[in-house]
Amino acid sequence: MSNGYESRLKAIARLFYIAAALLLAVGIFLVSQMRSRSILEKTLMEVTRAQEGLTRVKASIANRRQTLAAIKSHLDQDANKSSPEMVLYRKFDELKSRLNADDITMAALEKKGGEASLQFTLTFNNPEYNTLLNTVSSLHGSAFPMTPVSAVAVTQSDKGLGGVTYKITGKIITSDKVKP
To answer: What CATH code is assigned to 83-175?
Structure first.
């Protein structure tokens, strides 16, 4: 009787080992599938992010092309009408009339490296802070001739409370190649 019992026990043990091996193989397969899925999900997120970035880059390129076309158009119009000096002085007059500074000064005209430039300093006494921000923003937003701001100084007056002075220093820059 022990022989029949042992043979049945061996058969059950074999089935158990086969079932355990199959269960282990299925477990390993499922774990590898979960890892593969996780990797694919990360890859999909990166591809999606890259596509969104590409869309933003394409929009930025289109915007820059439009801006460049507008600058070239404006440059061509001014190039046919004015000398570099006239373009700079016209822009200076525009700044003077538009910005309502308490004091505006300019340095001598400079021509260097294919550019003509005119340095200016705007002084505002007791303005509101948004006046400063709007002025700097409008100067930076100017397409042609360019008017980059090189310095902004804020000083408080010794005479009393609330006496604040803003000095904005920048340049008006145009191409020296503009023909009269």
So the answer is: 3.30.980.50
